[in-house]
């Protein structure tokens, strides 16, 4: 990505509107366990994915008996959320907390798949609000729903009964809509989250047993779809309980890499399965490892040979790449949202992760910033103001190449000519300087300031104000332009010419002030590098990176439950406790 391009590419969302929906009279009582049971709370939000980016963004919000279909604020004349339709589930004692969009494959009618506190998956017409179908078969609550990215008729649901079911909405399969059941030697406790790979051939599942499984799926509809005996898959091709040490409640694909989070860990982890490559043909079902073949090791994989010892198991089967810090995220059912980015988009190129914690704070991580910081870090001055030079080690090239399709190996230092070429390219990379501290689109340096009331230059400035208010040099501004400096110089000169009685003492004082203020406006590279490193340095996969931007949903105290992005990345919506909806946006157009 060119460093000269529109700075708005690097913009992250800000709060546009926040709202709390009134509690329904039919609100359900709260339960003492971990399951969501209050009709006043919103648990899931999803944007409709089948329109072109930027065209009529519509999102659905689910909680209790209530299903809302909404549009974000459209402009100055309409600064509020537009509720297009409100649907109430007519079942008594129902508490829905999972949803996913799909569409009628023939008519393109938007459909909403809804599940929650019952064992039924319901399909609503999002335009009319009519309940079209009810799919039964699970033996417990439905905690998450995912739709195949290549076939809107194929739906996956995760349940408390420790199984995943694959459903077909094709009218030809109406009599037996369950196409497959993923069960057996996989999850030992409730499954909480699902994610389809972009190819539609792989499905991730995570749950209370701390385990994340990768399932290889046949091409649906398969030979058993629509028949009385659905396809049964007993073993995932990859399984691990070593990424997280607690309940896994959110997973997501990012290309062939995986983001996941768990209860009480206060971080989102990016990791990959060794040798997994979605461009290769999916492995045969017979290759899936069993607990018998792996001696009950905590991780097993069909993509690499079995390690020689249990100690080498985790090192061989997967790689941790980085961790993102999300403070105050200690409860279950708090789920992040990933905007994958679009390379052909004018502004929405950068992939961004968003998460809302238990204290109304939304954290944003721009994954393109990590690659760009890696690319420019060697050219930034070190703590002493001198160039740092080449650094060794770091993150695997596969991780960073996922950001901008550029391998880190291309950024290593080589011959003197290569270094010279890099030096000549510094201007195009917009390195901050004392004269142009805001040259870079997101690396804003810390600059020294002289404040009145302190020691050193501040104390001298206070003394100067006591001597003559017109000669005060205390300043809160660190980027004073030449015109302002010239005006200040002229003003001081005029004042000195009209105050001859104090000329000698003021000249001495001004000399002291000038010496003390020598560093004013200069970049403090030590503090700047420290702050940037905390957010963008990816050489240590176990170090948690701080959020790149934090936005407070002001005026509402709530627990964030899920975040969703519009397909152009312009809108980000968070929902949570107390019927809360927060709409964040960027790129005013």
How would you sum up this structure, described in words?
- By secondary structure, the protein is of the alpha+beta class.
- Helices cover 14% and strands 29% of the residues.
- It contains eight helices and 31 strands.
- The chain has helices at 313-317, 367-376, 397-404, 416-424, 457-467, 482-497, 503-516, 525-536, and strands spanning 14-20, 44-47, 59-63, 66-71, 82-88, 96-103, 110-116, 120-125, 131-136, 142-147, 154-159, 164-168, 178-182, 191-196, 202-207, 212-216, 231-233, 238-240, 248-254, 257-262, 267-273, 299-301, 318-325, 337-339, 352-356, 361-366, 544-545, 549-552, 560-565, 571-576, 580-585.
- The strands form seven sheets. A five-stranded mixed beta sheet has the order 10-11-12-13-17, with no helix packed on it. Strands 14-15-16-18-22 form a five-stranded antiparallel beta sheet. It has a five-stranded mixed beta sheet with strand order 19-20-21-23-27.
- A hairpin with a 4-residue loop joins strand 15 and strand 16 (212-216).
- Helix 2 (367-376) packs across helix 3 and helix 5 (457-467) packs antiparallel against helix 7 (503-516).
- The longest helix has 16 residues, at 482-497.
- It is globular and about 75 Å long.
- The protein starts with 13 loop residues before the first strand and ends with a strand.
- Mean pLDDT is 81; it is low at 27-39, 392-398, 403-416 and 452-502.
